[in-house]
Write a structure and sequence with these properties.
Length: 160
Amino acid sequence: MHESHIDPNQPKSVLYRQLVEELRSLVAGEPDWIANLANSAALIYHSLPDLNWAGFYLLKDGELVVGPFQGKPACVRIAMGKGVCGTAAAQRTTQVVRDVHEFPGHIACDSASNSEIVVPMIRNGELLGVLDLDSPKLARFDAEDRKGLEDFVAALLAAT
């Protein structure tokens, strides 16, 4: 079992640097994509404060399908361009949403969620899916989270 040593109370820049280092150690030598996504979701969920969901949606047959995650049961399928995940996937850009209740077409999988960040996973120009994090706290995510999670996704894609 992998033991994480990340202190969630340190500055975000340090926290994300350590999170990426932990990720690299966790997935080193493991070629299985799903196994690495599962461990990545657990690492994020248990390392970052104020989350109620952390996981992946994978692109299959033109729609996003729930993949490995931590948290309450989730929406299984999300159309491209719908909700925060579908928008991030369609636009291929990270979406940082301070208040999901103000996001047009937000899909409420968990009524406790108030803010969200979604990072697309793109390898060699191909969209593989998205990393999705939800928080019960309004305005939980900011530019530091965007950079840190984009670095996290880049490290994950480079390792598998």
